Amino acid sequence: MNAKRDDKHDADKHGSALPSPGFFARVRAYFLTGVLISTPLAITFGLAWWFIEFVDSKVMPLIPAHYNPEAYLPDGYQEYGIPGFGLLVMLVFITMVGWFTTNFAGRALIKLYERILGRIPAVRSIYGAIKQILETVLANQSNAFRQAVLLEYPRRGMWAIGFITGETKGEVQHLTEDTVINIFLPTTPNPTSGFLLFVPRQDVVILDMSVEEAIKMVMSGGIVTPPDRRSPEEQKQPRVSSKTYEDLDVLREKENSPILVSRDIAPRQKSDSTEDTGKAGQGEDDKHREDA
Predict the structure, then answer these.
(1) pTM (predicted TM-score)
(2) Closest listed residue to residue 203, CA positions, set 166, 174, 235, 242
(3) N or C: which end of the chain has fewer CB within 10 A?
(4) What does the chain look like in DSSP terms, one character per residue?
(5) Beta-carbon neighbour count of residue 214 at 10 Å?
């Protein structure tokens, strides 16, 4: 038996339909949608085009005219050139340098080159630092920038997103009682600059979001927030708590050991020390009088 749907009855039962937005509201929605789609594409295309032109302007003048393909273009097209050819030449050159350094002659030449640079004081420091950073970042076994973390900064009760760059070693770790790790704290909206912090491992909260999502959140100033992919049970259970010790003062002894003392106790200690000093002075005066 076929049942016929009564749309009119349903409309009367549930009430009238929602009013459709006006013409200007639809145009505004279309415009904002177009902005959200076209702006990232335009910025990406503009940055890529600027990078290609920058590389071409630096590489193309170094190519001899006999081997430069732009010299063989028709007269009306030589001023436009071949976009991206300089970038292609640079990529081929870097690949050839990597291949050359893998054989015996290339390794010997690199050792000689590094030995010469090692004798120049200013260049030696810059070259060594850049080489160490690149080897750490580009190595396959590296864990640099592999995890996003949450830490209290710049004070208790305020949280910031950072990135683990490695375990603290050497003098810094030997001087600290806790096991600390290296945390890079980026700035907004430029994440390439920031601060290096040595934070105890127990004070760091590992985030489930990826490094790319955390970088997007930092660059956008919190406008772009990645979704929480944890289970609903984990989302309801807080993992950290802010504690502000407003009634404590940090006093340091001569051994530079931090001591937390209440503000109410600190004046008492001062008054007690003053009374002890006064009693000691009075005792010395009485002793001098007896001797006299």
Answers:
(1) 0.51
(2) 242
(3) N
(4) ------HHHHHHHH-SPPPPP-HHHHHHHHHHHHHHHHHHHHHHHHHHHHHHHHHHHHHGGGS-TTT-GGGGS-TTTTTT--TTHHHHHHHHHHHHHHHHTTSHHHHHHHHHHHHHHHTSHHHHHHHHHHHHHHHHHH-TT--TT--EEEEE-SSTT-EEEEEEEEE--THHHHH-SS-EEEEEEE-SS-TTSEEEEEEEGGG-EE-SS-HHHHHHHHHTTTSS-----S-HHHHHS--------TTEEEEE-TT--EEEEETTHHHHHHHHHHHHHHHHHHHHHHHHHHH-
(5) 22
Count other Cβ atoms within 10 Å, centred on residue 68. Answer: 17
Per the listing, tokens 């009367």 go with: 12
Higher pLDDT, 2 or 51: 51
Q: What is the pLDDT of residues 165-190, one digit of tens each?
A: 888 999 999 998 888 999 999 998 88
Q: Which of 214, 109, 202 lies closest to 161 in space, CA to CA?
A: 214
Q: How confident is the model at residue 230 (pLDDT cuts 50, 70, 90)?
A: confident
Domain spans, the chain: 107-138, 148-236
Across the chain, mean pLDDT equals 77
